[in-house]
Design goal:
The protein is of the alpha/beta class and about 260 residues long. The chain has two domains: about 25-155 and about 200-250, Undecaprenyl pyrophosphate synthetase (3-Layer(aba) Sandwich); about 160-195. The chain is built from nine helices and six strands. Strand 3, helix 5 (about 130-140) and strand 4 form a beta-alpha-beta unit. Helix 1 (about 5-20) runs parallel beside helix 9 and helix 4 (about 90-110) runs parallel beside helix 5. The mean pLDDT is about 90.
């Protein structure tokens, strides 16, 4: 450890404690969405031997993040770990990440939060390899009764979700005998929202994206219409507790207007 690190570590610790002490917990978000971006760029920047090392560090950070949310009693977290567009990457890049995800899903019940976790997956899991889907389903089965909600988006696309919700709504109306000429009168925002993947969750209050990218890239497009956003410069594997607390602090200082 160099001299700069020796000096910085206690300063960061003091700053972290001050942030936590001054945080108004009555104003914290109930539902946080996270876009975990920057694993591969982190691996390149740090000179890691391959992307897999960056993926593993990112998933270790994911488990830490769940604990941070548990410490602040945040009731719902939705994490985007794989987009539908990510599946267009070369197989040699995807296979190691799939392996790391399987390891993560086996690890979560043992190391994440207080055991009070309810896990559900959203997205086009049918596009994923069998072992990964099996690991996801196994995690859902093991963590199905907790009061804190963890939603993991895999092979997820926001536009596809809205299309799927609309199709499900139309199919339901048709099954109920609603005629084609009357169907449009039954389609409104509430009806579509009731068929989204996250219909049983409140909309996210805060969305965090790492790596310096200031865009949603299709994450919870419908649900995040009135969310607050925090874009953090650091890559996800380097995301610190201080960065988390700053995001929480910034959220508590904002006046939510919900489009008004």
């Amino acid at each position: 450890m160099n001299l700069r690190s020796l000096i910085a570590k206690p300063l960061y610790g003091a700053y972290d404690r001050r942030l936590l002490r001054n945080l108004d917990r009555t104003l914290l978000p109930h539902h946080v969405g996270v876009i975990h971006d920057g694993h591969r760029r982190f691996a390149r920047a740090e000179g890691l031997p391959d992307f897999t090392a960056g993926y593993r560090m990112g998933m270790a950070k994911f488990v830490e993040f769940l604990q941070w949310c548990d410490d602040l009693e945040i009731q719902a977290v939705t994490c985007w770990l794989l987009s539908e567009q990510n599946l267009e990457r070369p197989a040699e890049e995807l296979a190691p990440y799939f392996d790391v995800l399987i390891e993560l899903f086996e690890q979560i019940p043992n190391e994440a939060v207080s055991g009070d976790l309810n896990v559900r997956f959203i997205g086009s899991l049918d596009l994923l390899p069998g072992p990964l889907v099996e690991a996801a389903k196994h995690l859902e089965d093991r963590c199905s009764s907790g009061s804190r909600r963890l939603t993991i988006a895999l092979a997820y696309g926001g536009r596809r979700e809205i299309v799927d919700a609309t199709k499900d709504l139309v199919a339901k109306l048709a099954a109920e005998g609603v005629s084609a000429s009357d169907m449009a009168s039954h389609v409104d925002a509430d009806a579509i929202a009731s068929h989204l993947y996250t219909a049983d969750l409140p909309d996210p209050d805060l969305v965090i994206r790492t790596s310096g990218e200031a865009r949603l890239s299709g994450f919870l497009l419908w649900q995040s219409a009135y969310a607050e956003y925090v874009f953090v410069d650091v890559f996800w594997p380097a995301f610190r507790h201080i960065d988390f607390l700053r995001a929480m602090r910034d959220y508590t200082r904002r006046e939510r207007r919900f489009g008004k």
